[in-house]
Amino acid sequence: MKKIIVTNNKYVYEKYKDNFKIMFDESFAYLDVLEYVRDRVHEGHKLLTHPLSGSVKPNETVYKTIIISDKKGTLDFDSLKLIEESIATAKKFAANKPTPDWPESILDDFRVIDLSLIENVIDKLKHLE
After folding, report:
1. Residue 116: which residues within 8 A CB-CB, separation 6 or more?
2. Which residue from 26, 21, 28 is spatially nearest to 11, judged by alpha carbons?
3. Distance of CA 119 to the CA centre of its chain
């Protein structure tokens, strides 16, 4: 199955830009990535990774990478439910405690964590093909 990587993480973009279709926008906040993916799900794309994967809370990091199907089909209600619930969760966390204005060294750590999470998923998806 062909995939699209949606990310606001420049490390993910740099690593996978030559091998995957990528929607990369560094100006996106965490919630922007989720909402972009939700809009693609409405168009018929399917979630291939969980929107809230990893142990980093949505209000702790600014980076998020999600993989969706390249192929559009009929609306996948499981994907829609999952992305809508993820958006609600991210908004709840942000309302309780906004994301800190992290220094660059911490942002770099979060980029590395996000990249590591998606590398593991991509390796597993390759074995399923």
Report:
1. none
2. 26
3. 12
Whole-model pTM over 0.90: yes
- Sequence length of the chain is 129
H helix or E strand, kind and range, residue 49: none
Residue-wise pLDDT for 61-84, tens only, equals 999 999 999 999 999 999 999 999
pLDDT single digits (tens) 102-123: 999 999 999 999 999 999 999 8
Q: Is the dihedral of CA 38, 56, 12, 67 positive or negative?
A: negative
3-7 and 21-24 as β-strands: parallel, antiparallel, unpaired? parallel
Per the CB < 8 A criterion, the answer to whether 69 and 48 are in contact is yes
Phi-psi region of 40 (alpha: psi -120 to 50; beta: other; left: phi over 0): alpha
